[in-house]
Specification:
Layout (H helix, E strand, L loop, with lengths): L5 E2 L25 H9 L4 E4 L3 E4 L3 E3 L3 E12 L5 E4 L2 E11 L17 E6 L2 E5 L2 E5 L3 E8 L2 E5 L2 E5 L3 E8 L2 E5 L2 E5 L2 E8 L2 E5 L2 E5 L2 E8 L3 E4 L2 E4 L1
Parallel strand pairs: 1-2, 2-5, 3-5, 4-6, 5-7, 6-8, 7-9, 7-10, 8-11, 9-12, 10-13, 11-14, 12-15, 13-16, 14-17, 15-18, 16-19, 17-20, 18-21, 19-22
Amino acid sequence: SFPRATPMKQAAAPPSDDGEEGNGSYGSPFRSLARAVEAINANDGLTLHVAGDLPVRSDLTITSSCVLDGSRAVLRFFPGAGLSIVRANVACRGCSILREADGEQSGARPGGAECPVLISVSDGSLSFDSCDLSARFAREGKLVELRSASLAAVASSFSAYAASYASLFTASDSNVSLASSACAASSYTALIFCMVASDLRLQESVASVSCYTGRIADLSGGSCLLRKNVLTGS
């Protein structure tokens, strides 16, 4: 069983990363996801209840398994912010995770990465149930990057938009399984699945690319199962 759930709720004024923090109780919820991640990493198997519109302005790393239960919640990542999951199993339920568009002069992501990534998973797993994950990048970007990891989604939607390059799922030595979900990428070069030595299962889902050049799936090694999908390109 999980420890007592830790709630987050929207304050009367929009919450900010540097606002006065609560202690995570129902009467005094955390005001920022950064503070909540500290609590997640200090425990194992925590369930975090999320509500309201929460801005995220810095990179966050989750290292302990947890559940993010966010009915009608929006986690709004600003340029330069991202989420890393390292050696942990994270489940998201009913969350909207959005990345705001870069400014035209936005530079590369801190840490030297040439291509911004909204969520990265290494040696762990990430699952979505009834979630919406969407990102806008000025020039190029990746929605989710997996390394020796797994991703599973049901009844969820994924989208990415950029001027030069956009991909939804970039995977190496990983597993991706989507069911009853929708995927869309729009850019000069657009990819839904870019996978090396990885396994893909896509069932009863919709995937589309709008681009000058691109693919629904670019697969090298691994296995692939496609069943009852609608795949389109324009």
